[in-house]
Write a structure and sequence with these properties.
The chain is α/β, with parallel strands linked by helices. It has 19 helices and nine strands. The N and C termini lie far apart (about 90 Å). It binds 6-phosphogluconic acid. 6-phosphogluconic acid binds next to helix 8.
Length: about 475
């Protein structure tokens, strides 16, 4: 039982267990550790074919690993990661490595990497996406940090990852906490895409009066085209599921109050710090937060009613909705990738957006047909300043923006809340506006606070005496 296993997993919940089973399927000698006896039993049951067994003793688990040891953590993000590392370190030797595969905040990952490097332990943070199914049969993985540590687990990660056209959906992301940063932004995009899907569902349901079967049929049709994506795939299936208790559809008895674990909020927070706008992602975060004010929403709905007309020209509006969804989808990726670009410069992550779009094409929650176009865009120009700057994407935008405007106008006229869709078109218009009205902002700042301004006709910093000037 000594120095026998290539990798050991700490945390045998569904994600950890499934990833371990995936590794065993791929012929790797792996084992796990969990304090919970039930989790060990479950591992043994599910891993019968490989005689996969776990340890209840951390000491025995550590002794069982090959040197230098590869220890992966799949435990809830936050304080638990620190307490596991604290227990673990005294049992490790210099040169061993810890891979944190949970959704840790990137600043925690930076701190842990620095602390552990001082103790001679290699550490890297790796985002994993794809949920339970992904972990079991092929996730997308975003490892960043200690390159030597990555190289030591690269064959395992490449073997277990999802593949697209034969390419593994895992690549070394960059130094520091870049892996967890990229996973966080992946989740920000995920939040935004979920929100635009929810808003589109609302317009199909309330605007067009579609029932669940019709919504399923519409989403199903769209998923056969350019909108093809994992999120649309699962979304359409939601509308098929019946509920025994109510006798109706399950979706109709689910409360409209959305929860979150924080990765979307972190994305928004960082974007503010970096002064890099991602309004559609922000709206998705805010929409989940606003949804929790159910009582207030019910009261205000009664006090401030707005009568919506049933939207006519069903077929035309449905076609425009397909366009607005596609437009917003492009915009969600555009914002996320723009943020990655800014973070790469600020934190020296050396991010390769071509490679990132490549590993997002399979296995992860935001995988979509569109990522192939994005991958092409960054292959042609790795220094693309923004996704909207790519000629092929511009061709798509020209086609779908008119329909998007129709959807947004109609929705607003009728009082349907579409924060993400509306923010997406406004973001687009802001970026394609050469001369914005924010010269006024600068004038105001200088007027009341002497904050100065720059001029269009000469270099330098200026201040005007606004009160005495020609009033
Ligand atoms: C993934 C998911 C995964 C998880 C989210 C859910 O890529 O597999 O993003 O990490 O489903 O963290 O986040 P919320 O609970 O915040 O919606």
């Amino acid at each position: 039982m000594t120095n026998q296993y290539t990798l050991g997993m700490i945390g045998l919940g569904t994600m950890g267990r499934n990833l371990l089973l995936n590794m065993a399927d791929n012929g790797f000698a792996v084992t796990g550790y969990d304090k919970d006896a039930k989790m060990l039993q479950k591992l043994e049951e599910d891993g019968k074919a490989h005689d996969l067994k776990g340890f209840a003793s951390l000491e025995d688990f550590i002794q069982s690993l090959e040197l230098p040891r590869r220890v992966m953590l799949l435990v809830p993000a936050g304080a638990i990661v620190d307490s596991v590392i604290q227990e673990l370190v005294p049992l490790l030797d210099k040169g061993d490595m810890i891979i944190d595969s949970g959704n840790s905040h990137f600043t925690d990952t930076s701190r842990r990497a620095t602390d552990l490097a001082e103790q001679g332990i290699h550490f890297f943070g790796m985002g994993i996406s794809g949920g339970e199914e992904g972990a079991r049969f092929g996730p997308s993985m975003m490892p960043g940090g200690d390159k030597a540590a990555y190289d030591a687990v690269k064959p395992i990660l490449e073997a277990v990852s999802a593949k697209v056209k034969g390419d593994p959906c895992v690549a070394y992301i960059g130094p520091g906490a870049s892996g967890h940063f990229v996973k966080m932004v992946h989740n920000g995009i995920e939040y935004a895409m979920m929100q635009i899907l929810a808003e589109t569902y609302g317009l199909l349901k309330t605007g067009l009066g579609y029932n669940n079967e019709e919504i399923y049929t519409t989403f199903n049709k769209w998923n056969d085209g350019r909108l093809k994506s994992f999120l649309l795939e699962v979304t359409k299936d939601v509308f098929k599921v019946k509920d025994e208790k109510s006798g109706g559809y399950l979706i109709d008895v689910i409360k409209d109050e959305a929860k979150s674990k924080g990765t979307g909020k972190w994305t928004s927070q960082v974007s503010m710090d970096l002064q890099l706008p991602i309004p559609t992602i922000n709206e998705a975060v805010s929409s989940r937060d606003l949804s929790k004010y159910k009582q207030l929403r019910v009261a205000l709905d009664a006090a401030l009613p707005h009568t919506a007309e049933k939207i006519q020209n069903t077929a035309e509006f449905e076609a425009q909705l397909e366009q607005s969804l596609y437009f917003a989808m492009i915009t969600c990726y555009a914002q996320g990738l723009h943020l990655l670009e800014a973070a790469s410069a600020e934190f020296k992550y050396e991010l390769n957006l071509k490679e990132i779009s490549q590993i997002w094409r399979g296995g992860c929650i935001i995988r979509a047909e569109l990522l192939q176009d994005i991958y092409q865009a960054y292959s042609q120009n790795p220094k693309l300043p923004h996704l909207y700057a790519d000629a092929a994407i511009q061709g798509k935008l020209k086609e779908i923006v008119p329909g998007t405007r129709k959807v947004v106008v109609k929705a607003i006229e009728n009082g349907f809340a579409i924060p993400a869709l509306a923010s997406a078109i406004t973001y687009y218009d802001s970026f394609r506006t050469a001369n914005s009205p924010l010269n006024l902002t600068q004038a105001q700042r200088d007027f009341f606070g002497a904050h100065t301004f720059e001029r269009t006709d000469s270099e330098g910093i200026f201040h005007a005496d606004w009160n005495s000037n020609n009033l």
